[in-house]
Design a protein that fits this description.
Blueprint lengths: L18 E3 L2 E3 L3 E3 L27 E3 L13 H9 L4 E3 L1 H10 L3 E7 L7 H16 L2 E7 L1 H6 L7 H17 L7 E5 H7 L1 H13 L3 H6 L14 H15 L4 E2 L6 H14 L6 E4 L28 H9 L27 H10 L7 E3 L2 E3 L2 H9 L5 H25 L1 H12 L22 E5 L8 H17 L4 E6 L3 H4 L7 H17 L7 E4 H7 L1 H13 L3 H7 L8 H15 L4 E4 L8 H6 L5 E4 L30 H10 L10 H13 L2 E3 L9 E3 L2 H10 L4 H15 L1 H7 L4 H17 L1
Parallel strand pairs: 6-7, 6-9, 7-8, 9-10, 13-14, 13-16, 14-15, 16-17
Antiparallel strand pairs: 1-2, 3-4, 5-10, 11-12, 18-19
Pfam families: tRNA-synt_1b
Keywords: Aminoacyl-tRNA synthetase, ATP-binding, Ligase, Nucleotide-binding, Protein biosynthesis
Function: Catalyzes the attachment of tyrosine to tRNA(Tyr) in a two-step reaction: tyrosine is first activated by ATP to form Tyr-AMP and then transferred to the acceptor end of tRNA(Tyr).
Amino acid sequence: MKNGDDPRAQSRPSAQRKIKSNGKQNKTFSLLLHRSAPLRRPLKCYSRVCPFPLGFASACVLPLRPLSTLHFVMNTDERYELLRSVGEECIQESELRNLIEKKPSIRCYDGFEPSGRMHIAQGIFKAVNVNKCTAAGCEFVFWVADWFALMNDKVGGELEKIRVVGRYLIEVWKAAGMDMEKVVFLWSSEEISRHAETYWRMVLDIGRQNTIARIKKCCTIMGKTEGTLTAAQLLYPLMQCSDIFFLKADICQLGLDQRKVNMLAREYCDLIGRKLKPVILSHHMLAGLKQGQAKMSKSDPDSAIFMEDTEEDVARKIRHAYCPRVKQSVLAITDDGAPVATEDRNPVLDYFQCVVYARPGAVVTINGLTYATYDDLEQAFVSEKVSEDALKSCLIDEVNALLAPVRQHFASNSEASELLAMVKSYRKNGAGLPLAETALPAAPDKPHACMWMPALLKVPLSVAEGMIKAAKDFIAVHPASTVTLMLPDWSAVASDEITGVEKDISAALLVNSELLKAYGLPDSVKIMRENEIILGNRDDFWVSVIGVARKNMLSDIEKLYGGDMRNAGQVIAILMRVATALMLSVSHIISTSLDGQINTFAREYTKGRIECLQAQEGSVPALHRPDAAPAVLGADDVLYLDDNDMDIRRKIKKAYSAPNEGANPVISVAKHLLAQQGTLGIERAEACGGSVSYDTPEALVADCCSGALHPADLKAAVSQLLLNRSAAARALLNGELKKSVVILRNAEKKLSKKK
């Protein structure tokens, strides 16, 4: 036999037709199915990695063309086989078949970061897979992930340049033969801004329902390891998971390396009780051209063929490609879907299997013999019936023929040519653009302080009194200043505060902010909801969140919470707090004990431009014995904003207060009330010493120490003063806030059931 003669190789002159173009003969690689021609059932000839039915009877060989007419004559089994051939892995096959049988309109989705060059897997291989999906009757949605590229610091972190790259990539696909009839390109920045409320609420809920550890597992989708993660790289998988539901995708048709985040979407369905889960149809990851490269890398130009490569580039790269004469085995799929590098993996054969033979009707001719299937070609090469030089020469011709229409498009189309020139300018001398510096907003003309309302069912009176005093003190020091009380109705959902349900959180924030006003919060303090800031600045707010996230390490944020983070949503919450402060041009942030260290994040991010002020609490301490604090405070150990008259009387009556003491909880509350009112009156019978009034805390403490003032008399006075002070608040609770109070009581019941 001659070199290349294999008994299984078939000479198929009818499949070797040539077409003349400009006087030259051009080799062709795939089928155009005539719309008017009947289609016979395809022969069952499949490759395991990239199976596709070969040998359509009523077809002529022409360049890569759409197959969108196929589904009109295909039965359910044929549509299933065609769709299934796209994926190296399918989760779950039964669900895919069920989709085909029961859903008239199926939507596939893939997302791509406009990050620079497009390699052949993203170009030709993707075009082939998209054409299969549309031929099977699916709509294919491309999510142009410009905001995701921004989070990943691509193209220097400049959004406008990222968008230019996105337009360039779309031009490549058009030229590469992708069937655009049923393909939709949606830009993430535009669609998210247009539907900000729906999208971001979903992101927050996914963050709320997942631990940081779970989301960190997804970060391999960006090629990142845990110790190197920025906050943006935690936000990324939360958004990518949301994309699936936001786009109403039935099938996630991404690479195997995106497996973990796609699985996160299926797990989220379990968490929210959604029965219909997205099917994961993960395509094969093409190997890098060098030895030991499990997949191609855009950072290594010689690891892959790129769609803009010249004929000389293609020849050089393939000639130098690693090409062991070893039978290729099916790769094991790791937990995160990433391919494993092995010495046996042959990238040249990988290109043949997944690029050349993936196209319908593709055949390969070497030394006069035609190989109808990939398996035939592999066997011939492994058994040394095809030389390495001949194999590579054939692949060079095949790849250059596939890239020829792309080169022609960018040479002849002025708009496409201009886009390519711009993209090339972004990586002069082979290097990417340096990261663009994000300028901070200018400092405000006058002092502006902001404090956040705690998202709690019941706010301790000590915290409330500290907030009121801090606002009054700030206004006194800065007469022309502004103070804003922010109600975190979005970020509290992300942090899973109270029940994590927005209705409960909004009711708690409304009730407690109104009670704060009733207790004496100055009228000049402006009360705002995060919702107003976010929906009033749909683009700027979230770009600001992403900007803050890009510049801060996740580990630093975890430290601000003391390492005690319940969920991934808390990371988003702290980013939102900084973005809010920037949007409001805040000069100061007032913190309570409930804020911990999280407000220092804004100070560090702005390099000290935002100052942090600590509200002074402790004037209304816990009511237990100071030297015998319980492990967990009881319901009667703390005074709250919403206490009714019975609560107040009971708590003060039970409060620790021994005779002949100068310091205890009741004395502390009495001193606080004295400071507010200027005097503290004690009413008692003449036999008990008669009524007395105190103008200074020192006089009050002296009588308590000497025994001249009995704890029971002091408690009676303190109870009455607290009742007087809370009268307006209690009136609100029984009046205009009554409906919200009912919501809070129901929320309390929900929480008690969880314990």
